[in-house]
């Protein structure tokens, strides 16, 4: 087999081929049916989760009977604080997964403010006995009361330290829990772990408060980012060459200013008290402004920006001869977008669909996580046939069990459930994550096919713009949904399988962090690296397969094979053009984010004297800054993703054009005259074998 056979057969001249084929049929029907069934199952999981879960558990503390502490109109209205009988059990990952500690919990009027054991309470005065009794629960052994403080309505042990850093409870280094002496340090660790969700909620409330104060300024910043992106795209349409060079220079200057600013902040902190504290010593702080008051933070920012600056400059030096070629293709993409202006607004539909997918996944995940129930079991000292069976504490005293087993009690056992739903709850969570990946990838694939079909219609129009069909975006979207839903589902399914495997590998890596098996860690790291590379390769192949689907209307596997062989026959051009163009478009996104980010930083930090009074008072001024930066990147990415898809589509069409035609009057090129000027076909033989020398 020759190297040309291994790369597939070149396209032959077809006088009837005029671009995206309109007479096409449905592809990958089985995958379409499977995707529809999976979506129906996803809706069923959502409905089931919404009927079982209670998201109030995320916000409000609940006792072992499921009652919300401090809720108005309930017996717990005057008991707003939650008391844990065994705080050590809060160190379990269940705290994060189920928003509950697997220990008996009680709503109380106030947290304990002194240390008291059961023995001390019995031999003390009546006041101590009454004080101890309010923290007791029938049927639960509880032999020691620890002084606590309330944090977001949870009672947590008030721990201290002696000289040498020894953690103590009161004056003791140990505490007796269920008859076992536990080090106070272990209690401290359990308190910290039980606080993870609580502290996160506290930070979230402050962030929410900042959003209520600054949302209109954030919207203004995002509107400015959209206007800057639109202006940039319009300028690219008419001044592509000039704009690319301006963009390169401005990116270097913006990053350079960032390095200068970080150095000035670093120098200003020299000699300041507490500025020499390291990030490791500082640890995790909920007040993130503290990090900006130490020198090491600004030094880290400065080093990161310097590395980025050096990498960009080196890439520009090595790719300087290829930039002209990429600029020529960007010019052609600008002309295509100019004739298909509706393509610039298509990302809004993609954003809206992705927002729906993310919202559905997040809401379903919360309801699934909060659907665990308090399980009560029958506990007894004498023989009883109902021992360890599930019971209901509300009806237990009037049930058959209490009559047959007088000493039996219905006590809290654990959080979870014994129904079929609760047994397969972890599988439902897994299904929720998998369908999230599948739906998100499908929405992305739909956008890629739609844009590819529209830009292919532009390229294969012999007389531009006269031969371009009306409403190319709507026509392409209609073809994709009508004929190729199955193919899009197939491609997104393959990608989702790889992504879910990566999630499982990350989960295993988290589980093995405490393990000492170095070979297992090494093997897991290799697998993570391999699947990361595989995901990138599949994304690249899927993208080009979708372009071929948009043009020829064939199945996913056939289109992927044709795209792969076409790229292999033009492997040199792929390496030269595709990646250089992507790099230039990335610089454009970086420039827009940098400009908007710098102005938002000076505004929200109150460093612009002219508008200092207009800036809102915030807990964390980085919240609106980060929101504007991320939003600006998404907006810029939305506009530039249209350019990237346009470039990729035109590139594949260009390669097909070179294979089908030779530029003669009988077989003229479909590419624009401007693009023809950028190529020199060495001879007819080299043209047939797709070896084209680029000269611009």
Describe the structure.
The chain is an alpha+beta fold and 696 residues long. It folds into 3 domains: 29-49 and 201-365 and 424-683, no CATH class; 81-178, no CATH class; 384-414, no CATH class. It has 22 helices and 14 strands. The chain has helices at 3-6, 29-52, 56-59, 94-98, 118-123, 126-133, 184-268, 279-282, 295-318, 320-339, 346-369, 400-404, 420-423, 425-459, 472-483, 485-511, 518-552, 556-569, 571-604, 622-660, 673-676, 684-688, and strands spanning 81-84, 105-108, 116-117, 144-145, 148-151, 154-157, 160-161, 167-168, 174-177, 180-183, 373-379, 409-416, 679-680, 693-694. A 4-stranded mixed beta sheet has the order 2-1-6-5, with helices on one face. A hairpin with a 2-residue loop joins β9 and β10 (180-183). Mean pLDDT is 76; it is low at 1-5, 91-99, 160-171 and 680-696. It catalyses: ethanolamine(out) + n H(+)(in) = ethanolamine(in) + n H(+)(out); choline(out) + n H(+)(in) = choline(in) + n H(+)(out). It is found in: Cell membrane; Mitochondrion outer membrane. It is a multi-pass membrane protein.
